[in-house]
Amino acid sequence: MPNFTTLMMMCLVMLPMIGNSQSFQDDFTQLDSTQWRIADGWQNGFPFLSRWEGKAVSFGPRGMSIALKSDRKRNENGDRTFYSGEIRSTNYYAYGCYEMDIKPIREPGVVTSFFLFAGPYDKPPGGSGKHNEIDIEFLGSNTNMVQLNFWTDDDAYANSHETLIFLDFDASKAFHRYGIYWGEDFLEWFVDGKSVLKVKNNKFDPLPNAEHSTLRVMANVWATDPEIANWAGLFNQEQKTRLKARYRNFSFQSDQQCE
User: Is 211 among the catalytic positions?
Assistant: First the structure.
């Protein structure tokens, strides 16, 4: 018969994976390498036109900047090449309120994002390894709106839930605060502390579940392939302008709703 210690260990193994539950804040004035890492030297492929380089992400007194830049050279097809940046949390997190001040890029074909993510190549300990994602995305063709979305156990990206929220301001002109509340029973998105969309869990169309997979916190900027110009606008590959999105004052409050 197993002793008490053995029984306790067996119970711990059987507990569902719930991720890091520790709340934290970051003003993004400098990189906290215990909480974040920066994508460097690789690319996603279609529909991402730009690759990830660590030098595109910078920190300072006004927060974090993610730039989209041209290499000022051309590939074998004669097209200009571009790089941009991505930051991702070192840990995976579960239910709670995720908030960030963001000033996105206004430029057709450019996406500025803040989102929660896990997938086959970002698999948390004990997680399903399937694609789960909760998004806030700014489409550079019109920053008077923001796109909200989520996927649940969807490696094929087949069942998205895009919702466009029209803002009463141009998001690229100044910082505003954007939030995601991820709970077991519902998802809710916020702009400047005001709820703009709430989606309840539905057994026929479920929300991401922390017992199946916790999620990384991520933010990135990327240029879109011309084949998806009907979504984010057509990116001008001949431009030489340096584009930059800004982020500051990240906050995660575990098991708390956004206010």
Answer: no
pTM for this one?
A: 0.90
CATH of the domain at 53: 2.60.120.200
Active site residue 238: no
Neighbours of 133 (CB within 10 A): 20
Spell out the per-residue pLDDT of the chain, length 259, in tens. Answer: 444 333 333 333 333 344 566 899 999 999 999 999 999 999 999 999 999 999 999 999 999 999 999 987 777 777 889 999 999 999 999 999 999 999 999 999 999 999 999 999 999 989 999 999 999 999 999 999 999 999 999 999 999 899 999 999 999 999 999 999 999 999 999 999 999 999 999 999 999 999 999 999 999 999 999 999 999 999 999 887 889 999 999 999 999 999 8
- Is residue 163 in a domain? yes
Q: Per the structure, how many domains does the chain have? A: 1
The active-site residue out of 133, 162, 227, 259 is 133
189 in Cβ contact with 199 (< 8 Å): no
Instruction: Please name the residue ranges forming H helices in the chain.
Output: 4-14, 229-232
Choice among 86, 137, 184, 259 that is catalytic? 137
